[in-house]
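User: I'm preparing a small set of examples for a lab meeting where we compare how different chains pack in three dimensions. I only have the primary sequence for this one, and I'd like the structure in token form so I can line it up with the others. Please keep the answer compact; I'll paste it straight into my notes.
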Amino acid sequence: MAIPAVVKKTADMALNTYIERRVLPQLHARVRLVHRWRGNTVTLIEQRPWWRDEATWVDIPIAQFRYDNQRNDWTLYWQDRNQRWHLSEELTDSREITRLLAEVDRDPTGIFWG
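Assistant: Understood. Below is the structure token output for the 114-residue chain.
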């Protein structure tokens, strides 16, 4: 089942606000944050210029948020060095994606921002 339009729009707004706050405009030539949707999953991605060719940008996945239609909530995932996603055990599911974004920002274990 597809994510409800109102939930997706609310998540888009929250992610855009987070991205605007996280990266200063004067740094946009060196680092960007974007988000990409795939079904009921949205991934927060950091982009940086490739060291060999600065015209090419490299994607670095930071966090993934998955929406469950039956439970009407979001879950937070982190990616390991083998590019496998794991459920974040630090935070329970949330109906508000902003709560999960706050956890990514706080990053108490260093699994999102290092």
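A couple of notes for your slides: The chain has one domain: 5-106. The chain has two helices and five strands.

User: Perfect, thanks.
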